[in-house]
Amino acid sequence: MTTSAQADAAAALLAANRRRRRIRRWIAIGTLPLTLAALLFVGKLLSMYAFAHQSISAFVVGAYAESEQAARGQDVANWFEPFKAPYDIGTALAGAEQLGQARTELEEALPLAQGLDVCYVRINLSLVVERLGDAALSEGEAAKAAERYGEALQITVETPEECQSEDAQNSSPDPNRDMSETLEQNQQRQQEKQQQSQQQQDRDDAQGEQEQPPQSEEPQPSQDDLDEIEDKLNQGQQEREDELDGGDDQGGGGTDRPW
Which residue has the higher pLDDT, 156 or 15? Predict the structure, then answer.
């Protein structure tokens, strides 16, 4: 091969290499958004698992504030399991006896849950509402307690039948508790509490009626008193008529008499 041919071949090779580099560069630029999205996706998944693990671990040892804080980390751009953050937050708040806020979070989680995830969200929500009934009963508010127990019972009764299946048990966050037995026990206990609180309210109402002082009756005048009053009225009327007749005989000065 002549020197000129070698030079041409080298130039062609260099040009081909430049084209390949340009193609690789444009491919890299074009796929950069996908690469970044994939990295974000993996990072988000890892952070979700990390926050979930931290929340569960803290809850188990009774560190409810730390559990709530970790659960709130799941609430940022949670596209995968949107119910998990409010569920974990509500569960942590329930452990800290912040029952009103816990109920709010769990009620937010319930419509976001899908499939068998609905089961344990409903169980925790019904337990929180039941404990609200316990709190009301301890404060002597039997009617309010009965209302809360009724709400808890309704949440339990409306739990799907699939929640008593083996698949539901396998997806339970607490494998040591049988989900089917838990639902049955919750329903029976909440129903009994509702009936007891209603009976307590009935007893309180009956006791309140007995403790009310009898209404005092106005003394009624006797017949003699009525006769005496009538005689005085007649006498007074006669005296006024006599005075008027006497005034007419004397001749008035044109002034009208009083009514």
Answer: 156
